[in-house]
Design goal:
Elements: H1 26-55, H2 64-77, H3 80-83, H4 101-108, H5 121-150
Length: about 160
């Protein structure tokens, strides 16, 4: 390599200033956020499917009908004991195989989206919040769907009224 050729492929030092995203078209950013929300929805629904197998599905033990009723009641009541047992979007990095925020972003956004390293902190936060929102919403809805499916066909329905003679 010539000494006069600039080395553009060199990594930026850790102390280099973060490059904020230039003013992107608002519609393009909303499209990126929607792609992240949809990716979160897919992940949340998948997590709820796994949760259901062990709780009210094929691998569950015990009275799955009672469990399903308790989970649905806990969701309706906002019971922390129930809500804390539902699937969560864990981006803590404490587990070996969990993706990083940058990985989630890179796999969810359209190819023409700015790179993770090009986002400023508020945009990064907004992007991850869109993913989390999609995950949490879909996981909760899918858990409730699995619980309703685990109930007998007439559970929760009032018996038909008898005519008064």
């Amino acid at each position: 390599m010539s000494h006069t050729t600039p080395e553009h492929d060199q990594p930026a030092p850790d102390h280099a200033a973060q490059r904020p995203v230039a003013h992107h078209d608002a519609a393009a950013w909303l499209h990126i956020l929607e792609a992240l929300r949809q990716a979160g929805q897919r992940a949340g629904a998948g997590a709820a499917d796994w949760w259901a197998q062990d709780t009210v599905g094929g691998r569950a033990t015990g009275d799955t009908t009672a469990t399903a009723r308790a989970v649905l009641a806990g969701i309706d009541d906002g019971d922390p004991a129930v809500l804390d047992a539902l699937p969560v979007c864990d981006l803590s990095g404490q587990w070996a195989n969990t993706p990083t925020e940058a990985d989630l972003y890179a796999h969810a956004v359209p190819p023409d989206a700015p790179g993770w390293d090009d986002l400023d902190t508020p945009r990064r936060d907004e992007a991850i919040e869109a993913y989390r929102d999609g995950f949490d919403t879909a996981a909760g809805e899918r858990v409730a769907e699995h619980c309703r499916t685990a109930l007998p066909d007439n559970a929760g329905e009032r018996p038909p009224r008898r005519p008064v003679a």
